[in-house]
Amino acid sequence: MSADAAAGTGVRAVVEVLAKALADSPGEVRVTETQHEKVTLIELFVSPRDFAKVLGRSGRTAAALRTLAASAGERDGKQVTLEIREGR
Known about the structure:
The protein is of the alpha+beta class. It has one domain: K homology (KH) domain (GMP Synthetase, Chain A, domain 3). Helices cover 50% and strands 26% of the residues. The protein has three helices and three strands, in the order H-E-E-H-H-E. It has a three-stranded mixed sheet with strand order 1-2-3. Helix 1 runs antiparallel to helix 3. It is globular. 19% of the residues are buried.
C-alpha cells in the first residue's frame, strides 16, 4: 500500500471509529473513500435514526468530524472533505 493510500485509509478509519461510537446502530455505519483530482472525499453513511445525532446540535458534531478529518488529511498532505449522508 502506498503512503497516499495509507494516509487516506487512516482518515477513513478515524471517521468510522468516531461515527460508530456516536451511533445507536453502529452496525449500520458505512464509510467510503474516493479520490477526486486533489481532494479525497470521505462519505459517512448512518441510519436515518442516527443522522440527527451525528449532525449534533446546530451541526456542531458534524463540524467537529469534518475538522478532524481535514486536519488528519492535512497532516499527510491531502485535502479531505467529509460528507455525512443517510444510509438505507
